[in-house]
Amino acid sequence: MFKFTGKVLSLTAVALMATSAISSAQSMDELVAAAKAEGQLTTIALPHSWCGYGDVIAGFKAKYPEITINELNPDAGSGDEIEAIKANKDNKGPQAPDVIDVGLSFGPSAKADGLIQPYKVSTWDTIPDSAKDADGYWYGDYYGVLAFGVNKAVVQNAPQDWADLLKPEYANSVALAGDPRTSNNAVMSVYASGLAAGGTGGQDAAAKGLQFFKQLNDAGNFVPVDGEAAAVAQGTTPIVMNWDYNLLAMRDKMAGNPEIEIVVPKGAVVAGVYVQAISAYAPHPNAAKLWMEYLYSDEGQLGWLKGYCHPIRFNDLAKKGVIPKEMLDKLPAAENYEKAIFPTLEEQNAAKKEISTNWDAIVGAVVK
Questions:
Q1: Residues β-bridged to residue 278
Q2: Which residue in 34, 62, 251, 319 has a CA-CA distance of 20 to 30 Å to 283?
Q3: Would you say 104 and 122 are in contact if contact means Cβ atoms under 8 Å apart?
Q4: Are residues 95 and 207 in the same domain?
């Protein structure tokens, strides 16, 4: 699985009833008391090195020391999380997860299968509508945006937008992070280039993205190899498209040898989002709701940002001016993030079908 000042503490019962899908009205104080009485929260698939989760979990523990966090299988994937709910429907023991953090496609399917329950956090209205279930069954938690990672030792003038990649100065320089016939990362990069070229979304943006990559390949700028960190560092593929959190982590790991510049393109800024949900069979439902309140508070959201995963409430946090300057200084231009587009699951599926089916015929470059 690839899977931070103000915690809201003064909600009234009326306000929480208006924004939450709790079956019976609860104030925050009542929710905290109920969660403490349960005394435990069971999570799954939350590696401490991913998205700042180590600090996020520590923050929750410090705020609510009466609640023990039982962490299951930190390295599991989204599919494993869903199977864990299914396997423990009748089990209230330590192997039954209360909450899940999964890829976008797993939210709607888990809802359809009756595996998750609705809950709307107090900050619900600041989560983009396109990144949450209207009934509160699942909701985006953090996202990455597609960006350019540029080896400054090889490329002096970093491209600032998708169209720039076609310039002659970037000959034999541009790579994808994966094979667009099979890699979601690569598929969404092609999709984003199509949106920047005037695509309207879904199949149309995918088709325009294929034409863009045909131009890129015909111009001799596209390098058909997987743009991994080693290839970027060695200059084999000095420009790579990837999720920003991967690129930012790569930049930090290289520590200036070579210097890596991260550019969020000015045109289409496409986001890939993960979602949170509460198991329909959660043994500790109040602790699960309190966990969600913490994750979607300013404190919890900034925790993810510290780990380079953009919190879903980023625009709201930026508007309120609560993001520490030292965090913003480590990121590409914040104004570009404010343009982030969250493709729907339907749009993503249409793009995947169009790109995986027609890449060979239109672009004709086999990524190895």
A1: 99, 117
A2: 62
A3: no
A4: no
**CA–CA–CA angle 64, 67, 73 (5° rounding):** 120
The answer to the question of residue 7 being in a domain is no
Q: How many CB atoms lie within 10 A of CB 86?
A: 12
Residue keyed to tokens 């079956």:
23
Amino acid found at 6: G
CATH number at residue 193: 3.40.190.10
| pLDDT tens digits, 205-252 | 999 999 999 999 999 999 999 888 899 999 999 999 999 988 998 999
Measure CA of the first residue to CA of the last residue in the chain; give whole Å: 23
Count up the domains in the chain and report the number.
Answer: 2
Global pTM reads 0.80
Answer for the pair 305, 314: CB distance below 8 angstroms, yes or no. Answer: yes
Supply the Cα-derived Rg of the chain in whole angstroms. 21
Q: Are residues 289 and 234 in the same domain?
A: no
d(CA 111, CA 109): 5
DSSP for residue 151: E
DSSP-derived 3-state class of residue 132: strand
On the 0-12 / 13-18 / 19+ scale of CB atoms within 10 A, 286 is buried
- CA distances in angstroms from 368 to 182, 225, 226, 267, listed in the order given: 12, 5, 6, 28
